[in-house]
Amino acid sequence: MTRSFVTLSFATLFLCTSLFVSSLAAQESKKSNPEFSFGAEVVSSYIWRGQNYNHTPSLQPWAELSWRGFTFGTWSAFRVTGDGDDEIDLYIAKEAGPLTIALWDYWSYSKTNPGQYFNYNPETTSHMLEGQAILSFGEENRFNFLFSSIFYGSDPSKSIYGEAEYIKTFGKNQLSLFTGYQFKGEYYHSSPGFVNLGCTYQRQIAVKENFTPYVSLSFVVNPSAGSTYFIAALGF
């Protein structure tokens, strides 16, 4: 099976699923107002899906606009020290019931590899496009199941990743347990296997009614690479 056929098949599946989600969302109120939110985290190390991006520490601001079940957002990671690349991502997501379909555009750059933002040539681009499907159930006891596929850009192996997460909320505290597996490709490791196992404890800090920063501690293991990480974060 050729890569172009795989990409076309995934794009077709993504479009069909998005149309299905849109039909489910037709029952939502048409009078809903747009909602804008933003925030930032400072993390001791930038670790994502068991990968170390060499930010020590990292400033990670985000902003998003939600409207009628759609979310349009941006997320970034800027290194304070370290030799990793900086990152600016854009995404669009559609939510209906427990299902969320999302499309992410990850873009990395640095002084030594400045890149060009509008360069989407598959041989030279520093963008990666990823499609995601997420199922979520519960509130205080929440289960999230993620399936994602990098289908275009700077990962020629077209990696496929899945993750299961359990989140327990109690008062101002939150505990999450997660496990991630690479089914195909070489982005997270050179072969399929578990690449992201760990847990995160988060605690909200009561400052005032409309401002509740939080601190978190995470322990992450990449069994395939034999790597272990401990990360502290402050978010607001």
Entry summary:
With 236 residues, this protein is mainly β. It has one helix spanning 3-25, and strands at residues 35-43, 47-48, 51-52, 58-67, 70-79, 86-96, 99-109, 127-137, 141-153, 160-170, 173-184, 193-204, 214-222, 227-235. It has a single domain (3-26, 37-235), classed as monomeric porin ompg (Porin).
Task: Explain how this protein is built.
The protein has 236 residues and is mainly beta. The chain has a single domain (3-26, 37-235), classed as Porin (Beta Barrel), CATH 2.40.160. The protein is 10% helix and 56% strand. The chain has one helix spanning 3-25, and strands spanning 35-43, 47-48, 51-52, 58-67, 70-79, 86-96, 99-109, 127-137, 141-153, 160-170, 173-184, 193-204, 214-222, 227-235. The strands form 2 sheets. Strands 1-4-5-6-7-8-9-10-11-12-13-14 form a 12-stranded antiparallel beta barrel. A two-stranded antiparallel ribbon has the order 2-3. It is globular. The termini are far apart.
